[in-house]
Amino acid sequence: MKILLIGKEGKISQSIQSKAIGRGHEFKIISALTLSYIYSNRKLEIQSKEVDFLSFDAYIIRGVKSDFAQIIGKYLYKNNKVLIDEDLGYKKIINIKNIEHKEGLNIPRFIINPQRDDIDKFTYPAIIKDIRGKKGKNVYLVKNKNEAKKIIEENKNIHFMIQDYIEAQKEIRIIFIREKVLPLGMEKINTKNVIKNIAQGGTGKAYKLNLKEIEIANECRRATLLDIGGIDLIISKDGEYYILEVNRSPVFTEFEKCTGLSVAEEIVILAENKYKAQSK
């Protein structure tokens, strides 16, 4: 099988590449920035100078800006290619805002693009974060409305959300691959540091999931229909569970190190299974 990963050639991409080659597959990594988008006669064509773009059997899109990820995904989907995540091919990218009404899933109260009146009335401390951010960038813990207003006014080009700060006794990263929730999660070691997440150098340890946590992860999986998802779950001081995020392109280098599980190999196996199913 030939697999193409569209994204950055970092540790995670190389890890997936290593597992794919180890399982006997051809594997290539290209940057989305090297692609050409040609629109003619009401038809879009995507080309690459590095590879024959439609010659691969399965495609993985990682770390690509959402608008371009969706364009690439829809193009591959229309050409009947195996795509992870295939949701990129037929609907908008899923995130926490799509599960707020799902019964049994608690998320902290939030307001997207808050106005001055919203900031004045909000309860503090609170979290301010970029709704399009990743790897923990542009996330702030604010103590009062003045701090919140200052951050928003100084970053007018960023779409922020303001969210209730939930003091946590535990913060857990859970990963699922298609219909499989991995049996071990990763517990963030310093739950008080709400800004420095794992992608920015935070550390964690292996955490055995209980039945409640597995069911919450399954509810997130069913609600989002993602092929790959990273769930950030916290347990509050009073024992309530809250979902902070469902990330369709989770960073998992530290997760693999802590748990001993190979997310990269699970992704390759998923590509194999989807290709076999489509080939029948």
State the helix count.
8
Average pLDDT for all residues: 88
What is the CATH T-level topology of the largest domain? D-amino Acid Aminotransferase, Chain A, domain 1
Q: Could you name the CATH class of the largest domain? A: Alpha Beta
Strand count: 16
Label the CATH architecture of the largest domain: 2-Layer Sandwich
Structural Rg: 20 Å
Main β-sheet, in a few words?
6 strands, antiparallel
Termini separation comes to 15 Å
Order of helices and strands: EHEEEEHEHEHEEHEEEEEHEEHH
Quote the beta fraction: 25-35%
What is the CATH superfamily of the largest domain?
Answer: ATP-grasp fold, B domain
Morphology = globular
Number of domains: 3
Portion of residues in helices? 25-40%
Which structural class best describes the helix and strand composition?
alpha+beta
- Uncertain ranges: none
Task: Please give a structural write-up.
The structure is a single chain. The protein is of the alpha+beta class and 280 residues long. It has three domains: 2-92, Rossmann fold; 96-105 and 166-261, ATP-grasp fold, B domain (D-amino Acid Aminotransferase, Chain A, domain 1, 2-Layer Sandwich); 110-164, Dna Ligase, domain 1 (2-Layer Sandwich). It is built from eight helices and 16 strands. Strands 11, 12, 13, 14, 15 and 16 form a six-stranded antiparallel sheet that branches. Strands 2-1-5-6 form a four-stranded parallel sheet, with helices on both faces. The radius of gyration is 20 Å and the shape is globular. The mean pLDDT is 88.
